[in-house]
Records
---
Amino acid sequence: MSETETNAQSRIADIVKNNDVVLFMKGTALFPQCGFSSRAVAILDRLGATYETVDVLQDPEIRQGIKEYSDWPTVPQLYIKGEFVGGSDIMMEMYQNGELQQMVGAEA
Amino acid sequence: MPMPASEIERMIKDGIPGAEVTIRDLAGDGDHYAARVVSASFAGMSRIRQHQAVYAALGGRVGSELHALQLETAVPNGE
């Protein structure tokens, strides 16, 4: 692994560790730049969750690194309490069956 | 470079033998698909692992050539 890659992995690890609910996405919560990211934000808002977002479009190192961090090829990616939860499809499934509400609500 | 639905279906079936694959072209542009993959091999796997198995079958194309693949996975007979 190159120095840049190692650096990206440790930056991501810090972000995930320091934020209970964090969404890596394209764009911002206010202005999502992709339909999947937009859907992920809408789900979190609907749940009334408190969350941080990281705009991968502003940070090429994280944009590439996040895929390796979770072995997951796409963005958005949701992490709760340090654990990778999934992308927007899994978020939608877990939203519909109430699981996500429990995970997000439990940290309040 | 868009991928035809038949190619996506073939790759998933090659990677996950016996899987039942349904592809929908969401926007009619050959670039935004929804796939439902049902396989007995998913039993006991977390959702993340199930999706990773499909991504693996598609050999790194998801997130590059294949921008948008809405994915749903399941075990036969509604788990």
---
Amino acid sequence: MPQENDVTSRVTVGTETNRDRVFGFVTEWVAGARPAKIKLNDDSEWLLADESINMYRMLIELSRDHKKPILLAVDKRSRMIGMVFSTMIGVPELNGEIGDGKQIQVRVPPSPRVFRLRKDRPWFNAVKTAIIGAQNVSDPTKSHNLWVAFDSVESEIVDVRPVSN
Amino acid sequence: MSFLSDIWDAIASMFSDKDTDEIVTTCSGQSPSMTESEAVEWMKNFKDKRTDIPFDWPRDCCYTRAREMANELNAMGCTVGKVWNYAPPGKVLRAETTNVKEGYVLWGYHVAPTVPIQRENGSITDMVLDPSLSDQPLTPNEWKELQGNSNSILAQSDASPYYRAQDGRVMQDPGDADVKETLAEHRANRAIEPQ
């Protein structure tokens, strides 16, 4: 499973291809700059183009305001952000195959939302392994919550990370 | 004069200026129930009053809405429960809604509070109050029928679980501060929902 702030994994999400991704907490958000600038807790800085959809700006502000980490699909060379994903905390549950066996249904209680984990995504095995590991933790005193990054529009799980206490 | 006027105002304030059939006397006295019309009015008032609850955010938030409604109903003296509807494994519930662009939402489960309702025939039945799906109280089966899966599984509980898994495991109430933050997050998600 990718480690927190790991920027080596590659993502393919929606129409975006071969972007790097970064995961972290927003420590600084300069919305008025052109391009807008975001700083994460690993001190990395990323840029959001003026033409980026407003939803990405709102997701960044939501992450900052609620002190939740965020997942960014980025181009490391230009430092530009391609996509923004919010996170929720919980213990995801794998709930059977859907879509002709090409996806797995995932739920993150107490949310009633239904997410999918696509088998053709490069992160599929890592995410599935992490979810099974979290479900199998037998020590009730040990936190087994995960940060679950998701594409809200597509209802797709795009990453999970352990919650560090 | 002012003294008499103050007394008159105090007396007048003890009475409603509404017609007697409009006054909501829900769950008062010896009866922990309400009539169907009282339930309709309570749902409308609650929805209007609690603008912090995104009733127009059907993708999520049912468990938080149910918690807030149950707490208020309980404080009024109602005997409150919760009803849970679970999609079968690998399947989903599907509810029609005009609040998202697709015109429907998919859920793994759904929850809403129940209270005893005095029906017109005099019987008292536990009915579901779910302003996100209906302006009227519904029987659990009517409520289930709005969620598009005839094989879904209904379960009833008392009002205490914040979340109840289909196997009966429960997540207890996280407290007001946590719920307040969850509501703020759901309002924000409502705001960024593509229209």
